[in-house]
Amino acid sequence: MTTHDIDYKIYGEELQYVEIELDPGETAIAESGGFMMMENGIEMQTIFGDGSPQQGAGMFGKLLNAGKRLLVGESLFMTTFTNMGQGKKKVSFAAPYTGKIIAFDLSQLGGKIIAQKDAFLCAAKGVSIGIEFQRKLGTGIFGGEGFIMEKLEGNGLAFAHAGGYITERELQPGEILKIDTGCIVAYTATVDFDIEMVRGVKNWVFGGEGLFFALLKGPGKVWIQSLPISRLAGKILQYAQGKRKEEGSILGGLGNLLDGSE
Q: Number of folded domains in the chain?
């Protein structure tokens, strides 16, 4: 089975959604919670795994591949949306928080993309959604968000969501980019991923950026987000727990200046 050849259009600026146009018999797959709306004639069905050929034959193969998805915080099940009517029909999927939707044409990207485990939104049926373990021991111990990632394989369209502003970088052979692990959205399979310790005792104690960052080495493409959802959630939690009773007063203003809140 080849990947279904779907058409799409992305709407919005900071809170986007993607509209997928399906010919009769074509199917899109999505994680639960991403569905926004669909036209009459599209049939929704919950399936075990992703329904791709790479999923494996037989119940054991399906169990093994679907079970791996639990390690990246995803459900064992996915939802398919199939055009069972006459003529073209449209189904839309929405981003869960402010940011951008990225379209990956896997046929133009070597057939494989490695992405953050919460980045996948939807895809054409036939695209395989699995997990990617970083092979190096140091990466596994210290890599944090970059250790267990999601892999999208096939020759069709897949869509990911990322926070803030999205930058696409083309790394040349041997070119190295140092980046916070949470800011990585995705990269092609040709990019080498490793981690490096931040140098300098003062950076460890006072830097506030963690002890390690990711090392991405070309050749290949890298997609970077300016606002990871983990960073946004951490800031919201920090302000929710640390709100001053005297906020708005002169005393509160001085306190905020002293602790760096202003």
A: 1
